[in-house]
Amino acid sequence: MKAIELTEPSLDAFRPVVLPDPVPGPGEVLIRLRAATLNYLDIAIAIGNFPVPRFPLIPVADGAGEVAVVGTNVSAFKAGDRVIPHFMPRWQGGPISPANVAGMRGISLPGSLAEYVVMPETGIVALPSHLDFAQGAALPIAGTTAWNAVRSAELRPGSTVVILGTGGVSIFALQFAKASGATAIVTSSSDEKLERAKQLGADLLVNYRSTPEWDDQVLRLTDGRGADLVVDTVGEATFARSLKAAAFGGTVFTVGFLTGTAASIDLFSIIGKALKVVGNNTGSVADLTEAARAITAQRIAPVLGQTFDVAETSVAFSRFAAGGQHFGKIAIVQ
Ligand SMILES: NC(=O)c1ccc[n+]([C@@H]2O[C@H](COP(=O)([O-])OP(=O)(O)OC[C@H]3O[C@@H](n4cnc5c(N)ncnc54)[C@H](OP(=O)(O)O)[C@@H]3O)[C@@H](O)[C@H]2O)c1
Questions:
Q1: How many Cβ atoms from other residues are within 10 Å of residue 43's Cβ?
Q2: 3-state helix, strand, coil in the chain (%, to 5)
Q3: What pLDDT digit, counting tens, does each position of 223-254 carry?
Q4: Does the beta carbon of 43 sit less than 6 angstroms from any atom of ligand 1?
């Protein structure tokens, strides 16, 4: 099969290769991959900011395709089914554990920039019928994470959620927040992106470049109350402000490390308002299944800012790595 390998941690180290076709064993399926989408995690690996067991590796955690061959003892899927392989297929459900996170696609397991991948049937989820392969490939990390974010705060009509930036996780969080009936406040560095977020249902908009004290602006926009949920996809640069923007008893859902992880905070902002600070590491197959069900029920269309051919992998990675150049997800099709 044709594949792309990343030979070392460098944005210039993608090389096309031909590898033996993988063969499914008992309980496994062979998937013909059709699309992948990028997450910041893929970039972090390609620039040496995330440890991996070894190079070369087949990069990109998230993908989608169709079942080509089923192994023996496979009951849930058949050839031709459109499917999404999960990022951490060993994590079936329940709480996170070291065993659950031991196998990660694009890191310790083969990623999505290959014609074929073998997966256990327990590690794949049906692709919602209203989505194409590239849209479906957006679900495993970004979709699942955003789903877990809105569930962490039990959003409902009347809730307020703050969403930082307009990247992959944030746009899914906006779509799920609106599906929950919540009021969504979106921040961005770009007025044009804020306008696009408004088209997707964002109620209140804050440009964090022209309003660096965006947390104060959130308090003004909520009559001093603050937000029930702040989805912090950024990390060090925003975490202290996220705590300030949250309402008493609110939730700060912390997933991002775009700007580093060494945040300096005043603990009293957590103690005094009795905040819930919820960490998250993507999610389980069960979480992805639930997210896909919600996406189907609400006819949510994942937002693809740009789509590249697999031959343009380096360009796609560089575009993402430049930061702030995209809206929603970047897809790679093959
Ligand atoms: N732990 C988990 O479960 C989990 C899962 C998925 C992702 N993540 C992490 O979450 C982060 C976001 O991932 P992603 O894939 O959504 O990335 P992404 O698509 O690159 O989105 C990043 C966006 O963040 C915004 N941003 C950057 N600096 C900002 C700042 N100082 N203040 C506010 N917004 C800022 C920008 O939005 P504008 O261009 O609109 O300004 C940018 O487009 C990454 O660190 C990723 O590793 C964690």
A1: 21
A2: 30, 30, 45
A3: 999 999 999 999 999 999 999 999 999 999 99
A4: no
Q: What is the pLDDT of residues 162-211, one digit of tens each?
A: 999 999 999 999 999 999 999 999 999 999 999 999 999 999 999 999 99
Handedness of CA 95, 96, 97, 101 (dihedral sign): positive
288 in Cβ contact with 84 (< 8 Å): yes
Domain ranges of the chain: 2-138+302-333, 145-279
Residue 296: CB within 6 Å of ligand 1? Answer: no
Tell which CATH classification among 1.20.1530.20, 3.40.50.720, 2.40.40.10, 3.30.360.10 matches the domain 145-279. 3.40.50.720
Q: Ligand 1 centre and the CA of 282: distance in Å?
A: 13
Top CATH class of 2-138+302-333 equals alpha beta
Best of 43, 233, 242, 278 to mutate for ligand 1, by most ligand atoms within 8 A of CB? 233
pTM of the model: 0.97
